[in-house]
Amino acid sequence: MGLPDRFERSNRLLSGITDAFVAVAHRQKAYLVKSEGFSANKIHVIHNGVDVERFSPRAADPSLRTGLGIPADAPVAGVVAYLRPEKNIETFLQAVAIVRQRLPRAHFLIVGDGPERRKLESLARHLQIESVVHFPGLCTDVLEWVRTMDVVLLTSICEAFPVSLLEAMACGKPVIATEVGAIPELIVPGQTGHLVKPGNPSDVAEVIIRVLSDPVVGRRMGRASREHVERHFGLMSMVRGYEQLFLRLLAKK
Q1: What is the pLDDT of residue 10?
Q2: Is 156:86 a contact under the CB 8 Å cutoff?
Q3: What 8-state DSSP symbol labels residue 155?
Q4: How far is it, in rounded angstroms, from Cα 100 to Cα 163?
Q5: Which of 167, 154, 145, 140 has the alpha carbon at shortest distance from 68?
Q6: Closest C-alpha among 189, 145, 198 to residue 167
Q7: Within 13 A of 249's CA, how many CA atoms are on the CB side?
Q8: pLDDT-derived band of residue 82, with 50, 70 and 90 as boundaries?
Q9: What is the mean pLDDT of residues 7-33?
Q10: Which of 46, 52, 173, 213 stands the most exposed, by the fewest C-beta atoms within 10 Å?
Q11: Band of pLDDT at residue 49, cut at 50, 70 and 90
């Protein structure tokens, strides 16, 4: 929804021969109609879903912390993302610099790789937080890294309906994310996590501190996150949505 990828021309060319487009959220449908000229009648909303059996609340692998030198009892906040400009990890790092002043024992993870990695590592050194910010890089065991975190963040300036947040919530994690794209359809503020304005490190820092400072509240939000995903965003719910759409389209033929 928005930068950096735009498909208006392709969509216009394909629209005449396309029976249906799928939006992964209601806000995305509204965006596609208003900004990219889709016909609202052709757009069907099917939310992304995750495998709640695979992504589930379980104990983290302690060797991940040990390998990075993170104490077993240190609070951990993290991001899972492809490190592109629109993910705006700079805001996360700037927030970390604020959080560290009040929670010096906290550690932070940036799981993923991409063109912004060197820039972000340089910013961490500039902010003098490199000792508590860890870059595991591109990982095949992302699920285990998510389980290592006490709270999962996404500080993007544009999004659609991010699966990374769904996976974190399914693992029983509270989430903090920017109020962009269709993220407000995913998070119940104050119950499953917190929404913040994009590009505001101080606001991000405050909610990180709030969650990490009260593990009881964090765990309660994590349980609510898990229940919310189970109820609304399970993998089979998404599969049934596509199945029903295909059957309706076939019946029209």
Answers
A1: 74
A2: yes
A3: -
A4: 28
A5: 145
A6: 145
A7: 15
A8: very high
A9: 85
A10: 213
A11: very high
